[in-house]
Specification:
alpha/beta
Length: 241
């Protein structure tokens, strides 16, 4: 009979990069402060995001990574851990946050769910679905939404071609990978990758696509705020009723 100890169970951490300024919303004159702190349905957008993760008991801890000097969370009631190690790009912010997780006791084989602060419509059910789909996967994966619209490529403002859409998905977050492997992948990929899956793909791996919802969109443009507000107000109204 083997006496080798069983490997420790993997834990689940959430990492919320929150160091951006929302330049596309700022350029349109919609956001006097970073968009993740703009009020939506009665509270700052990021607080809706954090509430969804707080409703998933399997999440051991939530780390929010903000820019240096950002004191927003000093004025909020939240149980998340806040680190001001945000970088110049999303990839840098996430990489710095992963190092912070290690400093707080996370291990390389633990899972991290990286989620955009501005995807404030994510639900606990979607987070749980991602964990269920990926916790025994060799690579990990991400929430994604199968493309429904006809897809065009462009050349100088005109249609250059119609792109087959049958195998196209819109990448969303959370994106869930082992902390150690993601840290190595981001270090190898550099600061310009736009999501964690891209860094993992650069290692020659194929993350799992976990079907999500069109409502899990990233609030990016001024008109997105009104849509997010309407969805959240509808959800809250249904809970009251």
């Amino acid at each position: 009979m083997s006496t080798d100890p069983k490997p420790p169970l993997s834990r689940f951490f959430a990492l919320i990069p929150c160091a951006g300024v929302g330049s596309r919303a700022l350029a349109a004159g919609a956001a006097p402060v970073p968009k993740q702190y703009q009020p939506v349905a009665g509270q700052p957008m990021v607080m809706h995001t954090l509430a969804a993760f707080a409703s998933v008991p399997r999440i051991a801890d939530v780390l929010v990574v903000v820019a240096m000097g950002d004191d927003f969370f000093e004025h909020q009631s939240s149980t998340c851990v806040v680190s001001d190690c945000g970088g110049a790009t999303r990839a840098e912010t996430v990489a710095n946050g992963l190092h912070d997780l290690f400093d707080h006791g996370a291990l390389a084989h633990d899972w991290v769910l990286v989620h955009d602060a501005a995807r404030c419509l994510v639900t606990p059910a979607q987070i749980n679905a991602l964990i269920d789909a990926c916790e025994n996967d060799a690579v990990g994966g991400l929430l994604a939404h199968k493309l429904a619209d006809t897809l065009k490529s462009e050349d100088q403002g005109r249609v250059a071609a119609t792109v087959p859409r049958s195998d196209k998905w819109l990448a969303q977050t959370p994106q869930m990978f082992r902390i150690g492997q993601l840290s190595q992948a981001l270090q190898a990929a550099g600061a310009e990758v736009t999501d964690e899956s891209s860094a993992i793909e650069a290692l020659g791996l194929a993350p799992k696509l976990v079907p999500s919802s069109a409502q899990n969109f990233k609030v990016t443009y001024p008109e997105d705020f009104a849509l997010a507000e309407a969805v959240l107000q509808s959800r809250y109204s249904q809970r009251i009723d």
